[in-house]
Amino acid sequence: MKKRVLVAISGGVDSSFTAYLLREAGYEVVGVRMRVYDGRYPVSHLKGNVCYGPGESQSVEMARRICKWLNIPFYEIDLCEEYARYVIEYFKREYLRGRTPNPCIMCNRHLKFHLLLKKAMELNIDFDLFSTGHYVRSEKRGDRYILKKGIDTDKDQSYFLYTLSQEQLSRSIFPLGEMKKAEVKKRALKLGFENADRKESQDFVSSKGYRIFFRDKEIKRGKIIDKRGRLLGYHKGIPFYTIGQRKGLGIASDMPYYVIKIDAEKNCIIVGRRKDIYLRSLIADNVNLISIDRLSSPLRATAKIRLNSKEAACIIYPIKRGKMRVVFDKPQAAITPGQSVVFYNGDEVIGGGIIDKVLDE
Fold first, then answer.
1. Which listed CATH number (3.40.50.450, 1.25.40.10, 3.40.50.620, 3.10.310.10) goes with 4-191?
2. Per residue in 338-349, pLDDT tens?
3. pTM value > 0.85
């Protein structure tokens, strides 16, 4: 019997082409899209094709048209409440703690690969496998499922999926992992996909900044000080600053200052010189391991401390289940609490976690 694949179709060309590839490979394909915008945080500035905002209705309609064109069923599932709880509230909480979260990782973890599938089953939508348009690869090796980088190094999205469990990987397939983005776009154009030239979603929210998520009483003006405690200026509210930030500090100086620490309890931004943003060690929490079951001794690996950073050589030290210390061979710029650190062995994802603390060493 044909296996039935549920494909998360955003309205963009990657997920749409994924559905096409699976259909051509002989799978029975069903399209699904989650709705996440309900206006509880009204967005007034429509800017590009983004994840959260009133422009979502256009993406839903595009996904519906693509599925009709491919002659496959399409379902829209309301996850507005869940998105608010697991993504927006998390996002707000982390920023108010002086941290810089990655909402896309939380969305994949809680919604796309979990609650979306749970709701689909509750609605009696039958499927055997789940697929997305991520540029990653997966394979089974022995009794474990392995997550690997996509072959397109410029498009690899393995950083976003380090939270996947063995059970989730066992039911997931990623057709685009073996392709390059340029090839996908070229083939989609040739086949007549109406979204082949559609601008990709790059931002989390469709607005000029994240101000819409915070009440006035949550944003408090505070001091900007240097490492010795000298007052240099005032900030507009800690949610609008991140480690390594240089622009927008409003400090007059012959040499630029950078944010090196955010003290949420004291509502204070600490700044230093460029050399001060380089550190070697961090503590990661909420660690999920993929290629191995557990880590009982130090492991040499490479790691990324944010999506666009280069991998850097390091040693991972286990502290306890779900918590690890990472020491880089060379100091890294702007290691940021709240961001994720993802560990690699070549093109394989060992696992990853959320940066909890940066160590001054």
1. 3.40.50.620
2. 999 999 999 999
3. yes
